[in-house]
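Journal club prep, shared notes

We agreed each person brings one worked example of a sequence with its structure written out as tokens. Mine is ABC transporter ATP-binding protein. I'm keeping it raw so we can talk through how to read the token line rather than staring at a rendered picture. Sequence first:
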Amino acid sequence: MSETLVVGKGLGRDFRDGNAGLVTVLTNVDCEIVSGARIALVGPSGSGKSTLLHILGGLDKPTTGTVEWPGLGSFEELRPRWIGFVFQTPSLFPALTAVQNVELPLILGGKAPADNATAMSLLGSFGLGDVADKLPEELSGGQAQRVAMARALAIGPKLILADEPTGQLDSVTAQLFFDVILKRLEGTDVALVIATHDEAVAARMATRWTMDHGRLVRGRHRNEAA
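Then the structure, token by token:
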């Protein structure tokens, strides 16, 4: 039976813009993420996808509405233990090598590795074994993003939120990247939510959420009629 991990009710988010005044990014969004979910969050740029992910991941607070994590424990336990977050642009620590970046959530989560076997295995699955000892500045944008995904997977989270993780990859590499993620999560209850403009990626997810001008206008399962 699926476990409810995150519930958002009436979520709204406003930002102050010096020139435009108050800008509304999210409006009255209701959503729920359950264990094992595979959700593609789609919509045009500026529709609120990133803001919604940040709120669901506890990185931002809604202006209105509430977000709760019934299946993930307290707010303080969310990251890095239960939520793995992959940002739109690579967010690696510049002073750490690729393998050290992947190991970091294990250390922060109190699971300091005796060796780097877990991190090396993850890097290898993304075709990055030969760059394990390189610093982020020595990696391409696509390599850095794959390291970031490996880092998100390292500690075994219950939920992965990924914001345009294939945005810096060509279409073939993006599909291979996605193959690795789905294979890693196969047979697990880990929920995956990916904000994406890549229709090929979105089509492989069981559920599609569509954002339009800050509103979640449709949440549809792949097997439902359009």
